[in-house]
Amino acid sequence: MQVYLPIAEVSVNAFLLLGLGGLVGVLSGMFGVGGGFLMTPLLFFIGIPPAVAVATEANQIVASSFSGVLAHFKRRTVDLRMGTVLLIGGLVGAALGVVVFNYLKSVGQVDLLVKLCYVVFLGVIGGLMFVESLNAIRKTNAGVVPKRKKHNWIHGLPFKMRFRTSGLYISVIPPLMVGVCVGILAAIMGVGGGFIMVPAMIYLLGMPTKVVVGTSLFQIIFVTAFTTLLHATTNFTVDIVLAVLLLVGGVIGAQFGAVIGAKLKAEQLRILLALMVIGVCAKLALDLLLMPGELYSLGAAGGH
Amino acid sequence: MRLLLTFLLFFALPLKAEEVVLGLSQDTISIDANFSGSEILIYGAIKRETEIPEELLQVIITVAGPSQPVTVRKKDRRFGIWVNTEAVEVDSAPSFYAVATSHEWPLVISDTEDLRHKISVERAIRAVGVAADDPQRFTQALTRIRTSEDKYQQRDFEVNLRQQTLFDTAIKLPANLTEGAYKTRVFLTRNKEVISVYETEIEVRKVGLERWLFTLSRQQPLLYGLMSLAIAIAAGWGASAAFQILRRR
Lengths: 304, 249
Hints:
The complex is a heterodimer of chains A (304) and B (249). Chain A has helices spanning 14-31, 36-45, 50-74, 80-107, 110-142, 173-189, 194-204, 209-234, 240-263, 266-289, and strands spanning 2-5, 10-13, 160-163, 168-171, 296-300. Chain A is mostly helical and 304 residues long. Chain A has one domain (2-289). In chain A, the strands form 2 sheets. Chain A has a two-stranded antiparallel ribbon. In chain A, helix 4 (80-107) packs across helix 6 and helix 4 (80-107) packs across helix 8. The two termini of chain A are 35 Å apart. Chain B is an alpha+beta fold and 249 residues long. Chain B has 2 domains: 2-206, Immunoglobulin-like (Sandwich), CATH 2.60.40.3880; 207-249. Chain B has helices at residues 2-15, 105-108, 111-117, 121-124, 135-148, 208-219, 221-248, and strands at residues 18-24, 28-31, 38-48, 57-64, 67-78, 81-94, 97-101, 152-155, 160-162, 166-173, 180-190, 193-206. The chains are: A mainly alpha (304), B alpha+beta (249). At the A-B interface, strand 1, helix 3, helix 8, helix 9 and helix 10 of A face strand 5, strand 6, helix 5, helix 6 and helix 7 of B.
């Protein structure tokens, strides 16, 4: 069934969009990532203009994250306190990120820098996570009880706060810093930042994997809602018809994702996420390294 | 002045001895939610008061969508990776352009006439003052990309011409149409020279829900954004509630 999208000005297959939304929704519910980094290239591929794809996806992620977070609320795996702290950091970071982005744009070659950032970042995060979770799985198989709570310099910082759901008693400074860093990266790369936030919460803050997913979704809702409004009012690129088609699939997928995620062990969840991050990294690296089929590309005039 | 005008008219008339009478299968194209491309039938007859001249008559029909400036970028290998290195701004390129002719292109029209009336796809793209050592590469790339998307079509032998009097062609419009007035031109040529031009417009418009959403997004962007968010939240909550009910059973 073909549907004409009023803002994107293209006609696309409705079932294809429902399927795409569903697929990304499952990942969202399972890993606590928004899925923007996966959806953007897919939408480009079916012919949605890039500006519309990025803006509309933010709107779809609001829906699937909300659906996912409700499922996690029922299971009491959302740390509201931690989420709020991260969110405050994230909003500050996003504002800083916009400044950094505009500076890079004035220097030129911002696209390239963003892509290189992505590849290096995703490669490092994915690689480390993969090795760590592989070791963890091997240890559980060998019967060694994993030690989660390690004492390091983070525990020496002031302004301690109790995060009951996560079972942590740490200073608010590290979560705030994580929020700010992710916010900056998210604004520069144009994504919600879930796939950076999730590993950061697990490894830097030492939060339990199960709580991380729900908490990440919680803060993604606000970040993407803000992005949607920004795009709608400044670029007029949110396509509501496209968003509805994607989010119908997305909200259902997110529910399934949360169910699947609850059945998996923490190490398995981490290793799958690591594989996904490495996959996206490899795809981006190949784009940069292989010779493209068409050397020329078209864009609206005045774009960067 | 008036004398000059009558003088010109007097001399212009014999040149216009053959005129086009045109019909369109539809003069407005409505884009609604189910729009998936369209085909317009352009047909007509040639009205003449004199005998049919010896030289064979040929017909060219063009349909052009609204023009916009376009940036064409080129990738190059730098330090082992592929990056955009060159960018060229094309002043104005039609969002859609179709040319149909009644015979092989070189036999229908001369280059000078093409240049004057801007008929072929290459001529329809306006790229003056392009700052590159070889601007043609960029306009060619633009044509190549849009042709592969069916947005630019150059088709020979697509106009059926009967008895040098009746002609018709069908132009396929793709699903990704831009709104606006689509300028439709009919050229009659003889001996590769244009002897008559006829112009009309086909209106392409969004209607119904599509129109309403588009207008809302431009005129009330904040309201539109909030509406999008409200739908997203409602859908997220709805799915969660539905799953809750399903699980309880």
